[in-house]
Design brief:
Helix content: 40-55%
Radius of gyration: 22 Å
Largest sheet: 4 strands, antiparallel
Number of strands: 19
Shape: globular
Distance between the termini: 50 Å
Strand order of the largest sheet: 1-2-3-4
Number of helices: 15
Strand content: 5-15%
Oligomer: single chain
Structural class: alpha+beta
Length: about 450
Amino acid sequence: MKSKLIYIFLFIVSLTACMEDEYRFNYNNPPLVLTADSLSDALGSFGTADLPVQSPNNKARLSGSASPITNKMWNIALHDVEQNLVTNDYGTYFAAGRRYTERVYTRDIAFAGILGLNAIYPEEMKRSLEITREVRSALGYKVSAPHVVKEINAPWEIFSESEKDVMAAFRTNSITRRTDDVVWVWAVQDLFTQNPGLADWEWLFETGTDYFENYYAPWFDTEDNLYKCQPAFQDIESTGYPDSLDIADCVLMKGTSTNCLYYKAMLSMAEAAEKSGQSVEKIEYWNNRAADLKTAILKELMLPDGTFTYYKVRYGNVMINQHNLGTAFAIIFGIVEGEAAKKAIQDYPVTDRGIPLIHPFLTDNQGPHNQASWPFCSTFFLWAKEIALKEDFTDYNAALLARTMGTQLAENRDKDWGGFGSFHEKVQLPSGIIDGSGQQLWTSAAYINVCLRAGIVEK
């Protein structure tokens, strides 16, 4: 009888373990471990019961293969996203995170849309992207005095001596701080592709043409066929650059990630031209421009070992450092494929705290745009790594995102920005301490992305 009871006990334990293995997500690579009911890392741990219960308005839910903690974090992700919807005289749109109130940040909205909001919140995304164009068009080349870059032949107009005045008047920054603005084109193309009923391809073609001709053309360098621009999302004069760089240095460089975004935008323009019934010549024009830019990226921005430089400095030499978004976009957009894609990404470091934003770190500056991991960037990177290596990294990706709930938050986090139990903005490296705003739009969207990639979302 005793042996029979032992057998039954072992059978139950075995069955439970099998059920646990079938749940999404599971990751077991200590110190980072994600189970069906807990997350632990080098700094601490929490369980499903520790997380807040959220009831988002959106009714998209996960399949039965999602674990209890995955389901709870899914509801938190949707709730975090909905907390970022603001309404004012511009309309209703997504803000970037609780600490950013009503600011209109094109890159945050666009990246969040591509990661998952285009699929789950399509109508809100369409209006948000439209508002970014309305605001950017109203602002144009009106800038604060320090943001006039004389090397760029553009219709500069000094609005104020202070950038704070620009933000107060328009709820966004001068164009000089937004040289990665082109990301909106990819976001709209992705939105329309996923939601044909919302698509207005003629609007995309006409608006995109206007922006390329009137906003982006002054930044194009005919000498190397690249765009002068900051690397994507790396705020100019931030810790993401050598300490000696000034405003002009930060925007006269050629960021790999943003040039990749221009490439994707050109392909999107060709698609918009075709789907809106434009002439064959216009379709070919955008395809040819994309092909020329791809050639320039491979020639000017690829390092001898097959990886991609962070950026080409304004004076011509390239950095030995890499940017995880530059690597990711080159692969996601097919600028490199096959063995070349593997070579570009396979040796980039991955850690139990996240993917370093810059590798190696800049040695003459410190801070969150250098010595850090940003979860949304890590998600783009792992998406690209799946393409290049043809492996599934969603369990690891989910574990990295889960830990941003706060196994250990930076000191003095304002609870109004979203404390423990919401998706946070960034991770300090090498410490792994969670930092920045909670209820961060693109981090929450990244969690939606990993669930979509894993195929467990039921709309």
